[in-house]
Amino acid sequence: TETERTFVMVKPDGVQRGLVSDILDRFENRGLKIVGAKFMRLDRELAEAHYAEHEDKEFFEGLVDFITSGPVFAMVLDGQDATRQVRRMMGATDPAEAEPGTIRGDFGLDLGRNVIHGSDHEDEGANAREIELFFDDDELVDWDKIDGSWLYE
Ligand code: YYY
Ligand code: MG
Fold it and tell me: Using a 6 Å cutoff on CB, does residue 133 contact ligand 1?
């Protein structure tokens, strides 16, 4: 099976609201394999690098303030079509528009407090770039999950 790795992060609002385990539960139940995880706080430099694509937007300062305002739970998940599947599970950027059943649609109400980040599946290279920004090579674990043959044909 061809799998890929994607970068995912529970944002400070999700951590403060105690949603980390619920969110991780959804990814594990879906069959995604954890290959890295880290509880950390972003400094401004990392936040600005992570959101560099938005540096000219009017919401950039507020976004950097928010994402550095408290700890986050960053992870790397591996699976078939993982990037796109995680984005589908997250739902639309604005929780007010995200479908119920998605993470943002179930846990959020406001665009600037949308609980979770996932690499953009339409931006090729976003995954590799974000994984490298947040994790050293030796913080990612290569392992075989025993349910692989029951998850994939
Ligand atoms: O990838 P995703 O998080 O779904 O959305 P982006 O368009 O990349 O924006 C990143 C981040 O910025 C978003 O999660 C909330 C915030 N944001 C905002 O505060 N106001 C906007 N008009 C657009 C995005
Ligand atoms: Mg994005």
Answer: no
Q: Is 120 in the pocket of ligand 1 (CB under 6 A)?
A: yes
- Contacting residues for 102 by C-beta, under 8 A, at least 6 apart: 88, 89, 90, 91, 92
Domains of the chain are 4-137 (3.30.70.141)
Closest Cα to residue 66, out of 44, 33, 88, 94? 44
Active site (annotated) includes residue 50:
no
CA atoms within 13 A on the CB side of 137: 0
Whether this model's pTM surpasses 0.95: yes
Ligand nearest to the CA of 63: 1
Instruction: Report the mean per-residue pLDDT for the chain.
Output: 97
Collect all residues with Cβ–Cβ distance below 8 Å to 9 and sequence separation of at least 6.
72, 73, 74, 75, 116, 117, 118, 134
